[in-house]
């Protein structure tokens, strides 16, 4: 037994696993709330999660009115009215399961920011095509590119692999090469 405990302690120390303390030093962070369970990972914190439905502490701090209701709760529940039951529930939990399952409206802000980014990109594209990119240089025209092709062919540029012939070259063929 002692060997097993020392082995576990040694493995935790090697792996860097530290147990979270639930000592008196963490109690000042929770205020005047009751510790009612272990919670998600053993720390004093409140979190509404479906996978861990019982948080370690209550949602609200204790007040005199709430403490009186808790004393009444210890008796017969039929004496509690619906409003008192709801008050007790809201003191322990922030949300019901239906409220946790309710879809959030976060998708609206994500969609809005996405559309804002896309529209900003489109406006930058329009601006750049109007003011930044002027007309292409004259050497980009089909006639000049065809002339470059025929000049490279005349000086036998790349005689082994040859040149790729663009489709518009034949209509700009020079007069000296028409008989080919």
UniProtKB/TrEMBL annotation:
Membrane topology (UniProt): Single-pass membrane protein
Subcellular location: Mitochondrion inner membrane
InterPro entries on file: Cyt_c_oxidase_su4, Cyt_c_oxidase_su4_fam, Cyt_c_oxidase_su4_sf
Keywords: Membrane, Mitochondrion, Mitochondrion inner membrane, Oxidoreductase, Transit peptide, Transmembrane, Transmembrane helix
CDD domains: Cyt_c_Oxidase_IV
SUPFAM superfamilies xref list: Mitochondrial cytochrome c oxidase subunit IV (SSF81406)
Pathways per UniProt: Energy metabolism; oxidative phosphorylation
Transmembrane intervals: none
GO biological process per UniProt: mitochondrial electron transport, cytochrome c to oxygen
GO terms for cellular component: mitochondrial inner membrane; respiratory chain complex IV
Quaternary structure (record): Component of the cytochrome c oxidase (complex IV, CIV), a multisubunit enzyme composed of 14 subunits.
Family: Belongs to the cytochrome c oxidase IV family.
Protein function: Component of the cytochrome c oxidase, the last enzyme in the mitochondrial electron transport chain which drives oxidative phosphorylation.
Protein name: Cytochrome c oxidase subunit 4
Species of the source: Fopius arisanus
């Amino acid at each position: 037994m002692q060997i097993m405990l020392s082995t576990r302690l040694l493995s935790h120390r090697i792996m860097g696993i530290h147990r979270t303390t639930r000592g008196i030093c963490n109690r000042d962070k929770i205020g005047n709330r009751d510790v009612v369970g272990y919670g998600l990972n053993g720390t004093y914190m409140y979190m509404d999660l479906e996978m861990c439905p019982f948080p370690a502490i209550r949602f609200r701090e204790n007040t005199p009115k709430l403490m009186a209701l808790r004393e009444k709760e210890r008796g017969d529940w039929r004496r509690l009215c619906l409003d008192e039951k709801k008050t007790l529930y809201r003191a322990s939990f922030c949300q019901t399961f239906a409220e946790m399952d309710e879809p959030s409206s976060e998708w609206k802000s994500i969609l809005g920011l996405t559309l804002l980014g896309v529209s900003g990109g489109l406006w930058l594209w329009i601006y750049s095509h109007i003011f930044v990119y002027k007309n292409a240089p004259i050497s980009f025209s089909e006639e000049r590119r065809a002339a470059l092709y025929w000049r490279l062919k005349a000086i036998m540029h790349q005689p082994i692999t040859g040149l790729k012939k663009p489709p518009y070259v034949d209509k700009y063929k020079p007069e000296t090469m028409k008989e080919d």
